[in-house]
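Replying to the earlier thread about multi-chain prediction with a worked example.

Input:
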Amino acid sequence: MESIILLLSITLMYSTPLVFGALGGVISERSGVTNIGIEGMMVIGAVAAATASYFTGNPWIGFLAAGAAGALVALLHAVASVSFAADQTISGVAINMLAPGIALFACRFFFDGAAMSPIATKLPGAVFGNMSINITTIIALLFAVIMWFVLYKTKWGLRIRAVGEHPAAADTLGINVYRVRYACVLVSGMLAGFGGASMTIAIISQFTQTAISGHGFIAMAAVIFGKWHPFGAYGACLLFGFTQALVVVLGGGNFIVPSQILSMLPYVMTIVVLILFVGRSVAPKADGVPYVKGSR
Amino acid sequence: MKQFEKFLRSRFAAALLAVLVGFIVSAIVLAIAGYNPIQAFAALFKGAFGRPKYVANTIIKATPILLTGVSVAFAFKTGLFNIGAEGQYIVGTVLATIVGVKLNLPMPVQIPVVLLSGIVGGAALGSFVGWLKAKFGIHEVITSIMCNWIAFYLCNYVVMSDTFHKPNSSSALAVNPSSYTMILGTWKKSAAGKEFLAGVPWLREVLLKTDLNAGFIIAIIVAILASIVLTRTKLGYELRAVGFNRDAARFSGISVERNIVLSMLISGGICGLAGALSITGTSPHTITLLAAMESYGFNGMSVAFIAACSPLGCIPSSILFSALIYGGMSVQQVMGAPSDIINIMIGTIVFVTALPGIAPLLADMVAKKRRAEENVRVSKDGTPLPEKEA
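Result:
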């Protein structure tokens, strides 16, 4: 029983950064912009959160700084993919190269050449018996609900989805396609930044070079697995969080499988899940296609 | 002016512009952080080309990224995005190490066998990703990132395994010396070699103080071969047709699925070769415990993009990036500025290459300016302009 509660608690903990990243992916792709740069935006968020929290002593400032830093990086992606109609995959990849560079540069700059930050103040959490839940887990769930509400119950959501499915049609109805896409990519970056923060000031309490290692990409897989729906993505992240929790729990004991092989589990699981589900989920029709006004 | 305009529309101008922006952005970042950018770039240049030894090291470091660059370029020309070059490279190093440690054949047999095992490893991982795309339609970017991490932990597993772990170290056993591909490897350490080299200081420095190896020559041959296959063969035609328009290719009787797997197989094999050459050509001639991705694959992407995904263009661009990366290390040694500035520079360069049309945009501006100037000249002659009449 105790180990089940432990497993559940770790699952929630590890799925949280993924949830933020995946929600970021959902909003961006719903508006028709593929965001492979989620990983990089999470890295930037991770370093911003740890740094701001360390210097101010207030983790909430760290959390907000992470969102702002993520959005700032997302602005680059928006300029490239919306204004310049760039190859969104290359732009995203460039951001994934740029971001760790900026993050480590900033880290070494602020902390005397060290590749990791000192211990920063963590965001608070609640403890229920054997189970501890960090506040970021609750915020992530809240964001999922808000995003579902916005996307499916408001006119803005309808506009976002219209822009992602058929931008030309949306344009003829007077929706500013560029503005909608800019907004969605910026929100996507902000959410990814929060995801980075929920790694460095909630799960661990410092920035390290490997704090974000492929989480952004697992989050992108969760977007596909979750059929571009906020709740679907949330569920997918729980599953991936569970595999990471298995790695932690099984790795701690004298399990027969070597720890390195066990560490592959989340990545193998992602591929397996994609094999099983990818054919059944359909991406927004204009996802990844730059919109050029007046083109057919 | 007209020639300048034409130049601006060329691929070379786009690459040059990207590099320029990369330098400007990193100069600004350095200046903000309180370091003198000019001094930093001078340290970078000196670190890359300042001595014969440094030049040799720049070439040595260019070998793996030239190959991963060719790999990415090859896949890209066939419509695939091989972000998994990193993992395929790692698997190449792992398999080459395993075979190189376990086998000890005569050199002319041993070297090809070790290199081939690296190629097989990379090709297997690459074609797996291709198969996932062909069979299930899963985007190759996500699966190859997952494969990168699987390869990463596979490497660490092999390093720590009882069979291969070198006691009291963080690396595996080194491969047998019969697998070494250094140039004049045994001669340079022999008495006759040492005696000869004592008379030629620069050669002595290059040969004895670096692991100068045959890798770069092999890499150039691979780049040329990749270019020939892509542009001069039926296979290359089919591969590019699938990348250019999948439906049209299928309609004309080309098997799309087969070609996707084939393209990733070749692309992965090239990365595997890169890994194997690193093991045979440079010390410590084995794999070590990885703490973070070593970025050979990711730097290969930068190499390919700046070369506009032309395999031959990867040759100069790999030297450029190698100089940046290797020279960048001395920025930290000389000035104490974080060497990560190089990653910022490289990221910026790739980002700018992703923006199509910046250089053509400049070309348009030049064209407009020229037309305006021509108009002025005509009016000075006293001839009225047709536009003004209208």
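DSSP finds twelve helices and two strands in chain A.

Feel free to reuse this layout for your own posts.
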